[in-house]
Amino acid sequence: MKLNPDTIFDVSSGQKFNALALDIFRFQAEENEVYKQYVNALKINIDTISEINQIPFLPIEFFKTHDINSKSEILNSKSEVFTSSGTTGMVQSKHYVNDVSIYEKSYLKAFELFYGNVKDYCILALLPSYLERDGSSLIYMVDDLISRSSHPESGFYLNNYDDLIFKLNKLEQQNQKTILLGVTYALLDLLEKQHFNLKHTIIMETGGMKGKRKEMVREELHDILCNGFGVTEIHSEYGMTELLSQAYSKGNGIFTCPPWMQVMIRDTNDPFSYLPLHKTGGINVIDLANIYSCSFIATQDLGKIVGNNSSRNKFGTSFEVLGRFDNSDIRGCNLLVQ
Q1: How far apart are CA 95 and CA 92, in angstroms?
Q2: Topology of 103-238 in CATH?
């Protein structure tokens, strides 16, 4: 069974999403050995699956212990292996990406949907924890966005806060549209040096405390960041090593998926049952861009769906992240315990 990856980004309705998700499920249940074994262990006949809520979701922990990859697609010159962040001794997730151009299409199209043309922005990245290790999918994405922005001031920052302060103030004076992506603890470190009154800059927090600071509830953190940067909303990105797509929040902690990504909320007492709007449970993600790994992932995040766009002509599910299951590894993907 062959699938055309380009069709992933042409999803324009709930009906098309469901049909493509079912096609990808059947492909992965045959070609992905780990997922195939998982489906068989559940004694599921793939021919009986006719709706997406019948599709089994692979626990995300499998990315730590197995190579989640389609046997029909061989890693080639366009391949990448992305690894998760983690403290010393923590087992890292590995995502074997056969064709990184699919990842590029996913994040570029999603950025355009949510923010417009990247060439309109200066992209500043304050991501020290990610820069200090190899294999970060976030660094891969941001580095490409910086390159595509074509703005001479776009770039990465490590610990050179004084240079970043100067750059932010300069861009503000020039009325330049700017996005500052920052790991949470580094944004707080920056505010200890100077407060701002930014009118042309989007602040996007894209990671946790990385063990550098005490964890905060989202409302407290965003109040501090809003006051410190002089902005009314803090944007966020919901992404992880195991996904090739991202959901974005433009404020209030509400994330929205691009059309080829969907969130479902599983019952914490019955992982094969799903909850309605505004009910809290485990977050399951369908990421059609994961066509050659696994598109159906049961995360260890807790959340609830707050809205659906059945037409999917531009955006998909809207959801809120409320924390993590007990005894889960802490990871830096905007997973702030509330």
Answers
A1: 10
A2: Rossmann fold (3.40.50)
Helix (H, G, I), strand (E, B) or coil at 120: helix
Q: How far apart are CA 54 and CA 45, in angstroms?
A: 11
Q: What is the pTM of this model?
A: 0.91
Segment 79-95, tens digit of pLDDT:
899 998 765 557 899 99
- Per the prediction, the chain carries an average pLDDT of 90
Beta strands, E only, the chain: 58-59, 80-83, 94-97, 122-126, 155-157, 178-182, 201-205, 235-238, 247-249, 254-256, 261-267, 270-274, 281-287, 296-307, 318-324
Nearest residue to 182 (alpha-carbon basis) of 125, 235, 106: 125
Show the DSSP H helices in 150-205 as ranges: 161-173, 184-193
Rounded CA separation 209/56 (Å):
32
Measure the CA–CA gap between 289 and 150, rounded to whole angstroms.
Answer: 26
Task: Report how far residue 81's alpha carbon sits from residue 49's, in angstroms, rounded to the nearest whole number.
Answer: 31
Domain coordinates of the chain in residue numbers? 103-238
Q: Which two structure tokens, joined as six digits, stand for 74?
A: 């061989």
**3-class SS letters over 205-243:** ECCCCCCCCCCCCHHHHHHHHHHHHCCCCCEEEECCCCC
